Each structure stands twice: as C-alpha cells, then as structure tokens.
C-alpha cells in the first residue's frame, strides 16, 4: 500500500470550503437559467458571438454542465474533474464577458439572472470579471489539491485513516 | 537461532523476493483496476452528461417554440411590429420597448412628442416593436399582458388607436417591482384609446396573443436588441435618446 503523506490539517478543510463555495455558485447559476428558457436564449444571443443555430445548445446545455459540476463539488465526487470543468467553464465565460466589454456591448452577463438587458451605463463588467477570476483561482487551487473533508467520493480520503489525530478532531 | 540481523539463507531470501514481487504485482494489478474503474467512470459520466444536455436542450426548445397556430394580430408590419405614419415617409424609426421598462417611459417623456410631430409632418414612420421580458409574478406578467393588450387594440382599432393606447400606458406606467396594471385597467385604457367592445375586453383578459408576444420578444432578441429602449433610425442604432438626439439623427438620415 502506498504510504499516505501527512498533509497539513487545514488544507483539506480549505478544499472543502472551496468545494462548497464553487458548488453552490455553479448549482445556483445553473438552476436559475432553467425556469425561463427564452430569457436564457436572449442572454446568450446578447453576446452576439454564436450563430442562431447554436444559441439553444449554449443556452440550455451550459446550465446542465453548471448543475452537474455544482452537484459533484457539493457532494464531493470526482472533485478534481469537477474543479477542472468549473475552471474551463469560467475561462469560457471570462472570454465572452471580456469580448462583450471590448466590443462596447451594453449587456448584463447573464451569469445569475436572465441577463441580456441592461440600461445604458448599467453594465458591471469589472465586477463580473473580478468575480470570475476569483472563482477561477479557487477552481484551479481545488484541482491542484482536491482532497477534502466531508466528501462522498475519492479513494484518498484522510478520513480513511481513523487513527490519525487530525481525523479524530474532525469528528 | 538466526536473528533478523544475520544474512538470510538462500531459500529464505528467495521466498522474500517472491513475496515482494507478488506484492508489487498485486499493487500494479490494483492500480490497473483502479485506472480501469476511473476510465469507465469517466466514460459513463461523459455519456450521462451528453444525454442530459440533449434531453434538456430538447425539453427547453419545446418550451420556447411557439405554437404554429398561435393567434396573430392583424395589421402588423413584418409580423411583430405596428407602424404609424405615412408609408412613404423618408425616415423609418424602429422603437423596441417594454411597457414595464422605466427607461422606455423616460424616453417617451423626453422624445415621444418630438417623434409624433415628425410623424405628423410626414418625415418619419415609426415602427413599434414590443418586447416583454420584465414579467414577474409580482406584476402578474404585466409586460406580456400590456403588449398583448396593445396587439388587441392595434388589431381591432388600428395603429392610430395603438399610438394613443401606447401613450396612455406610458403615462400611467406602474412602478417596476409593483403589481402592474390590472386587466380591467388595460381594458379601460383600450376603450379610451378607441378600442371598444366585448371582443377587446375578452382578448385582453384571455391573453389571446400571448404566444405572439413571446414570438415578438424572441424576434427582438434576434434583431440584436439587448435592452429597452432601443431605437434604430433608418437602421442605425440611436445613442442619444433625447429629443435633440432623435431630431439630429432623423435630420441626418433625411440628408443621407
């Protein structure tokens, strides 16, 4: 059996916090786009990046991926893959937001709302970009150190070694 | 008695080597099995995700597609707009508005009378493109009900009545986040605008053109409209939404 290196006791808890943060953000962001499909399409269309034929795929498919990533992170299965998925999604969103900003489009990012529509001077690009960059950093860190507490999956759970003191403290 | 520190006999050393090799083989086998399980898990997850995406795209697409037999109002221009003014007016102004949108009211207050003068002078033909994206449960889908009512008025009493109804709704716009106008109020304003009769009242209450409203909103989005009010003067997006801005853009369009 490979010997498990003792890790600093705080790192798995930080990973749990990262999982919960990203998981909630992605689950909520995905779920909010489901009730009003027409609004989701308008939000995608507002970016003026995709041909009309691909708009439904992005508007309806991306929330599925967001919910899947969010659920995986929340319960703690396939954490590294889910964190990488979150990072890929965030890079795509960042590129889209920055491109809309650069083109001077007056749109809402549609990240957590129906998006698309915004009054002149009401755009929030700096905040959107800062938030997504922060989330991207969290996702990257989680992909690098995916081991965490209170996770359902993963063969290298620290809790698999019940004799260690940090584990007993966790209970 | 031999102790652990003494060299092992050849037989014992051989047994130990065999045991070590077996342990290594077992570990390698377990690692291979784990990799295999991970691969299977990844493939299964990918397939499930693709299936989920396909199913959700299909379901959501069916939710957004409007019925083929959706009722459409009479007298539209291009299916989803109502035009006011002379057909041979040199300049066309396309107006994308939502009856619940406060900035649309601000635009109407600032430039509405200027536009009407330009229409009366025969310079401008205005196309009213409705959108309904500010529906909430709190306002009982006021955006949709108001645009449906506007379609009813235009369909039964013509576009001049629509223009009056349009001005009445902006003059009496309910606060955003409020409860919206009631169907009875919409019927009352329709009558004031000149659309009377039981049919008008019934079509406003029944949301007869509800699917058409969804189609109009969809079409506006496809037209590149991402917010309201959006104004195009002869196809050029208007940046300055003041009376002076409208006048200048119309003058420029006329000269060009």
From TrEMBL, chain A:
GO terms for cellular component: membrane. GO terms for biological process: methylamine metabolic process. The keyword Hydrolase does not apply. Keywords: Membrane, Transmembrane, Transmembrane helix. Its main location: membrane. The chain crosses the membrane at residues 12-32, 53-75, 81-102. The keyword Transmembrane applies. It is found in: Membrane. Residues 12-142 form the Methylamine utilisation protein MauE domain. It is a multi-pass membrane protein. InterPro entries: Methylamine_util_MauE (IPR009908). This is DoxX family membrane protein. It comes from Goekera deserti.
UniProtKB/TrEMBL annotation, chain B:
Residues 82-250 form the Thioredoxin-like fold domain. SUPFAM superfamilies: Thioredoxin-like. Pfam families: Thioredoxin_4. GO terms for molecular function: oxidoreductase activity. The chain crosses the membrane at residues 39-59. Keywords: Disulfide bond, Membrane, Oxidoreductase, Redox-active center, Signal, Transmembrane, Transmembrane helix. Belongs to the thioredoxin family. DsbA subfamily. This is Thioredoxin domain-containing protein. It comes from Goekera deserti.
């Amino acid at each position: 059996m490979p010997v498990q290196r003792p890790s600093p006791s705080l790192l798995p808890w930080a990973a749990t916090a990262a999982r919960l943060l990203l998981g909630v953000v992605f689950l909520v962001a995905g779920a909010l786009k489901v009730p009003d499909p027409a609004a989701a399409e308008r939000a995608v269309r507002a970016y003026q990046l995709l041909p009309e034929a691909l708009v439904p795929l992005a508007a309806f498919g991306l929330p599925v991926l967001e919910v899947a990533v969010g659920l995986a992170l929340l319960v703690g299965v396939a954490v590294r893959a889910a964190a990488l998925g979150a990072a890929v999604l965030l890079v795509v969103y960042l590129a889209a937001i920055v491109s809309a900003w650069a083109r001077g489009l007056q749109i809402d990012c549609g990240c957590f709302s129906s998006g698309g529509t915004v009054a002149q001077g009401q755009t929030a690009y700096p905040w959107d970009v800062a938030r997504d960059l922060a989330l991207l950093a969290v996702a990257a860190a989680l992909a690098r150190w995916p081991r965490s507490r209170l996770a359902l999956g993963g063969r290298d759970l620290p809790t698999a070694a019940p004799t260690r003191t940090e584990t007993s403290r966790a209970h | 008695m031999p102790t652990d520190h003494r060299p092992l006999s050849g037989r014992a050393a051989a047994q130990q080597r065999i045991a070590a090799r077996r342990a290594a083989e077992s570990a390698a086998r377990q690692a291979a099995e784990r990799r295999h399980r991970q691969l299977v898990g990844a493939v299964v997850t990918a397939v499930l995700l693709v299936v989920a995406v396909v199913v959700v795209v299909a379901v959501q697409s069916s939710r957004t597609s409007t019925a083929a037999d959706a009722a459409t109002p009479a007298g539209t221009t291009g299916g989803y707009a109502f035009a006011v003014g002379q057909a041979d007016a040199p300049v066309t102004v396309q107006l994308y508005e939502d009856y619940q949108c406060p900035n649309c009211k601000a635009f109407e207050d600032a430039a509405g009378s200027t536009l009407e003068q330009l229409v009366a002078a025969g310079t401008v033909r205005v196309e009213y493109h409705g959108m309904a994206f500010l529906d909430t449960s709190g306002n009982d889908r006021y955006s949709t009900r108001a645009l449906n009512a506007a379609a009813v008025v235009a369909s039964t009493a013509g576009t001049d009545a629509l223009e009056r109804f349009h001005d009445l709704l902006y003059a009496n716009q309910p606060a955003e986040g409020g409860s919206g106008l009631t169907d009875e109020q919409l019927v009352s304003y329709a009558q004031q605008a000149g659309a009377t009769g039981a049919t008008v009242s019934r079509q406003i209450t029944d949301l007869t053109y509800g699917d058409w409203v969804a189609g109009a909103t969809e079409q506006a989005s496809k037209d590149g409209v991402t917010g309201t009010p959006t104004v195009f003067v002869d196809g050029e997006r208007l940046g300055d939404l003041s009376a002076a801005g409208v006048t200048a853009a119309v003058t420029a369009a006329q000269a060009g």
